[in-house]
Structures are given as C-alpha cells and as structure tokens.
Design a protein that fits this description.
Layout (H helix, E strand, L loop, with lengths): L1 H20 L3 H26 L1 H27 L5 H20 L7 H18 L5 H10 L11
Helix pairs in contact: 1-2, 1-3, 2-3, 4-5
C-alpha cells in the first residue's frame, strides 16, 4: 500500500517543481500545507484502528489527493499534462519489470547488477512501445550538456 502512496507523492513533487519553476511557489505551499493537515487527520483516524496499514493508507490517500490537485493545476495553467497513452505504456513497462523482479532471487552482492538489468529491460520496453524516441534523446542532450565533457561527444 505504502509504495503506491510514495509513488504518487513523487509525482506530486515533480508537478510541484513545475509549478514552482513557473513562479508560483505559493500555490504549492497551499496544496502541500493542505496535504499535511489531511495526512495528520487521516493518521489520527486510521492508525488507532489499523496500525501501520492505516498509516500506509493515510499516505496513499494523501498522495492521490496531492497528485490530483497538482495535476489539475498544471493542466489548467499550462494546458498540458502527460497523455493517457504514455501513462498506460509506462505502467505496462513498470508492471513487466516488477513481475520480473519478483522472480529474480540472487544474493545481495549481485543487487546492483540486477538493478542495471531491470533498468535495461524497462528502457527496452519503452523503446519497443515507442514511448522513448530519437526526439527524446535530443531533449536529454539539451538538458544535460555533454560539451564540457569533450571526450564523451566523440
């Protein structure tokens, strides 16, 4: 339960940074303050009855509301948000990698290699589903100027 809440809070943070970057930190402050109050109230109600599971649900519900609020603001302000097709493709790739990860059982010393392999599978699935294209490579190159690392551009 908690992993979904934390994932949603991560999406909320990304959207919040977009809003702050557009010069509207006050909007993020209002949304975040409301979320803190909501999370406290949910924990007060859910933890005594359900313990840690109640706390996980409080975080997840807070993440849902925060993501909806921030996405609504971004959509209203910029008239743009991630497309439904992209969400479905990314979700499918994530579910496939999750299914693979559940079946991999290696010692902790191999964990970094497993993570690299899982990332490669995820990235490969995004390329196969045409969610990651050449235009995206150009965007990344503009975002991360490799010119200062001259030997990497060759």
């Amino acid at each position: 339960i908690l992993v979904f809440g934390l994932a949603l809070l991560t999406v909320f943070l990304v959207l919040s940074h977009m809003v702050m970057g557009s010069g509207r930190p006050g909007v993020v402050f209002v949304i975040a303050s409301s979320l803190v109050a909501m999370d406290i109230a949910l924990n007060v109600v859910l933890v005594p009855r359900h313990g840690l599971v109640g706390a996980a649900w409080a975080t997840t519900l807070t993440g849902v509301i925060g993501t909806i609020a921030a996405a609504g603001y971004v959509l209203a302000r910029f008239r743009a948000l991630v497309g439904v097709r992209s969400v479905v493709k990314i979700g499918l790739a994530s579910a496939a990698v999750y299914a693979v990860a559940l079946r991999v059982s290696l010692s902790a010393s191999f964990l970094p290699l497993v993570y690299v392999a899982l990332f490669a599978v995820y990235f490969g699935l995004l390329v196969i589903m045409r969610e990651f294209r050449r235009e995206d490579v150009g965007i990344i190159k503009r975002m991360v100027p490799l010119a200062r690392f001259g030997h990497l551009n060759k």
